[in-house]
Design a protein that fits this description.
130 residues, alpha+beta, 4 strands, 25% helix
Length: 130
């Protein structure tokens, strides 16, 4: 009796396995060459190099948070954001990483010239007398 149960189970497994294999598709790559075509509508420019780039307003906001004022001339050039801003030393040209908004390069364009009317190299005493 035990042999017949094992034989029946084995027969059922083989039968179902054969039916399952018959319904399955081929294993491996399909036969024949595969062609991939990419079509773009007229007038559309491929901008895959700008994938995952932070937008302009995020770059400007990060510069303001870092203490720069009057941020202007913000443009994307050769894989980096470029901008001009007023920093604590004067007008600076900035190069910003487009993925992290980190400042990669900073160059002073025009330094501040502070006007000091009462300090011309000598001593000045004022005791409240005019």
């Amino acid at each position: 009796m035990r042999n017949t149960a094992i034989a029946a189970t084995l027969l059922a497994a083989v039968t179902l396995g054969a039916a399952g294999a018959g319904n399955a598709g081929p294993i491996g790559p399909p036969a024949g060459p595969i062609t991939i075509t990419q079509t773009q509508p007229a007038g559309v420019v491929d901008v895959t190099y700008r994938r995952h780039v932070l937008p302009r307003h995020v770059i400007v906001r990060s510069l303001y948070k870092r203490g720069y004022r009057k941020v202007h001339r913000v443009y994307f050039h050769r894989g980096y954001w470029r901008a001009r801003a007023v920093g604590r030393r004067g007008v600076v040209a900035l190069t910003i990483d487009p993925r992290t908004a980190r400042i990669v390069h900073r160059r002073l364009v025009r330094p501040f010239h502070r006007y000091r009317p009462y300090h011309r190299g000598g001593l000045s005493f004022s005791f409240g007398l005019h």
